[in-house]
Amino acid sequence: MAATEKARPLREDSFDSEFLDNVLQQNEYDTENVIMILQDITARYNYLPQEALTYVAERLNIPISHLYSVTTFYKTFSLTPRGKYIINVCTGTACHVRGAEKIKETIEQDLDIHDGETTEDLMFTLDTVRCLGCCALGPVITVNEKSHGGLDRKQTSDLIEQYGKEG
Amino acid sequence: MSRLESQKDLKSHREQLQKQRDPNQPLISLCAGSGCGAYGTEEVRDALESEISQNGLKKKVEVKVTGCHGFCEKGPIMVIHPEGTFYPQVKAEDIPEIVSETLVNKQLVERLLYKDPVSKKKLSKEEEIPFYSHQYRLIFGNNGLIDPTNIDDYIAMDGYSALAAALFNISPEEIIDTIKKSGLRGRGGGGFPTGVKWDSCRKAHEEPKYVMCNADEGDPGAYMDRSLLEGNPHSVLEGMIIGAYAIGSNEGFIYVRNEYPLAVKNIDIAIKQAEDYGLLGKNILGSGFDFKIKISRGGGAFVCGESSALMRSLAGKVGRPRAKYIHTVEKGYRDLPSTLNNVETWANVPLIINRGADFYASIGTEKSKGTKIFSLVGKVKNTGLVEVPMGTSLRTIIYDIGGGILKNKKFKAVQTGGPSGGCVPEQLLDLPVDFEKLTQAGAMMGSGGMIVMDQDNCMVDVARYFLEFLQEESCGQCVPCREGITRLLEILTNICAGEGKDGDIELLEELANTVHNLSLCALGGTAANPVLTTLLYFREEYLDHIYDKKCRAGVCKGLFYYEIEEEKCNGCHVCFRKCPQEAISGEKKELHTIDQEKCIHCTICYESCKFDAIVIK
Q: What is the ipTM of this complex?
């Protein structure tokens, strides 16, 4: 399973082959476990650094193009660094019907970023997700693993401000 | 935890567990499903455990942190047994009073009781509450009594007794026969007869065979599978082991979407505990049957709910479906025979083995047997997970169980079946919910999502919304889906922006039929349903948008404006204060007006006005 360390961006001088070897080991160097391998790497770095992908492709003896096609197909993967706080606004049907668009707009305005983008200070990334499975609480957002339900515009703004202050 | 080496071992362990439980001992069941989790159930639990400890009640009261109770609108939910006292929306600050009044003094805390919105009465017992009393919670009802991280809870409730019976007293062919006779059909949306699927897989020639659980639950608005996996994971495991035994498989997978971390955690714990007890792994219960289960997490793709795409994803590949001339029961994962069933389908299996095919077939309609769990969400008062016999009407579900429309607004439609389904209008509310009847009306039962919409929802926008979703999720390999959905979306976006033109509707219909008939898989094949059903039942909204450039529901920006009605406005000044653009002017106790130049149609004033004085024009 994923490392419990806090996610941090990959620095050029901190290529951690030991960590990657561990991930590959835990996943039995099995190419069928590629998705989970990539998820474990994402949990550590908050995105998929190119060096990590090249390393994994080499160790698994698969073409880098295969990894590239998998990372660009599935939504949980990002090839660019993401924020410390990943905000997922649920735009599933139930939340949509209860006004999720307004919540998304509020966050876009407050943080000056669009859906899919990260703030310049790498604090926040805004993503939309189609259904977190908390449909009765709509509209729902998650900030990293924590869910917040039943939001209106003001509560959303206050929440984002709170996270910003925590730094 | 010692290994159970035989059917007898399991039985004695169960009897021992049942003896240990004093039915008169107070038991507090606290819901910690993801829904209540988002409402802060963790703080409630901490406060409860602390208060109980401080009052020296640790040995006298049992606290059970369970999975989803179903009445998600009212979370966090607490039920105190044996009385069945129901406390909704519990906060940490309520705990001291609950402990001192209800636990110690056996008195109800009146202010915390549930108030029925129809009768206006306060109800103290779970079973009295209409939301629950109209349901038939055969599968989901156990959630409130089981700690999903403790296998003993499941065993004490006769868990794994069906597995023992299957392994020792019934042959694989007889098991398949029973499932066939029960009439169980896939609960993931396809509705394929489960017994027939298992039979085909059993008869397939190649080995090894695989058994899988589809826990991808991609339909936005549906979360039944999540709650079953979080709350009663062993029911799913037991079903899978029985199925594997019947089919002749020794290896299984549970493919869970990545967005369900609690479900992944709980099923992982369940698998480990089942293995410790010898209910999973080698030589299960001393029967000689081996079966192991691996969890595989999805990468985030709706299309991976489709069986062939799922199996490719399991193999670490990109999840693109293939044309299914040869079914996955013959060539599935690694091109070998694979049986894929939905979470809820698997959870029904132990029930059928224990209570018999005849009992199961006595519930439901002629062609749709058993119960179904629905996620009743949207503009309905009582949102949550609802389990009813197949054949229950939409009206019963939405009004008797759901309590009717939020804020008493006017019902407009109920969307069933997710992005593959359709919108059912008011005139069809008495339709019974089963596989056949909804399909005949142009909708689809699907995996069980039921999204209620009211007068403030625009049906053209709803169709556009689903197409936007499907366009993102399309794998892209076939032209009808990739290009067809894009063009449908373009036309609808234009219509919603007030740029619809004569001929658009006919073009939508023609395109929709092309996408429907020629797409490679069911994603494209059903993509047209939201458009086609909204065109069928809500054509006038399309005409309004295209010819009058009006959105009467007040959703499509630029196609409506707000106006304050003189007769209803009493100058309460609330809208003035809330308007983010300072577009409203007026003195207190006098008629207010909206400056249309400044208004950005954010809907805040419309929603804040308690006198319905702001109208959509």
A: 0.83
Percent of chain B residues topping a pLDDT of 70: 100
Span A26-54, average pLDDT: 92
Q: How confident is the model at residue B490 (pLDDT cuts 50, 70, 90)?
A: very high
Task: Give me the number of domains chain B comprises.
Answer: 5
Who's near B311: CB < 8 A, 6+ residues apart?
Answer: B212, B328, B332, B333, B338, B340
**CB contact A79 to B (< 8 Å):** no
* Contact yes or no for B221 and A135 at CB 8 A: yes
**CB of A76 less than 8 A from some CB of B:** yes
Domain hosting residue B434, numbered range: 371-454
Give the ranges where B277-403 is alpha helix by DSSP (H): 307-314, 343-355, 357-361, 394-395
pLDDT over 90, % of chain B: 80
The enclosing H or E element of A85 equals strand A85-90
Average pLDDT over residues B254-267: 92
Helix axes B343-355, B224-231, angle to 10 degrees: 60
* Interface residue A165 vs chain B (CB under 8 A): no
Chain A residue at shortest CA distance from B454:
A97
The pLDDT of residue A5: 44
User: Which of A76, A131, A149 faces B299 most closely, judged by CB atoms?
Assistant: A76
Q: At what angle do helices A50-60 and A17-26 cross, to 10 degrees?
A: 50
Task: Provide the shortest C-alpha distance from residue B178 to chain A (in Å).
Answer: 33
Q: Do B299 and A75 touch (CB under 8 A)?
A: yes
Is A109 within a domain?
A: yes
Residue B158, domain CATH: 3.40.50.11540
Q: Which residues of B touch A134 (CB under 8 A)?
A: 34-35, 38, 72, 223
Contact A35 B313 (CB under 8 A): yes
CB contact under 8 A, A70 and B318: yes
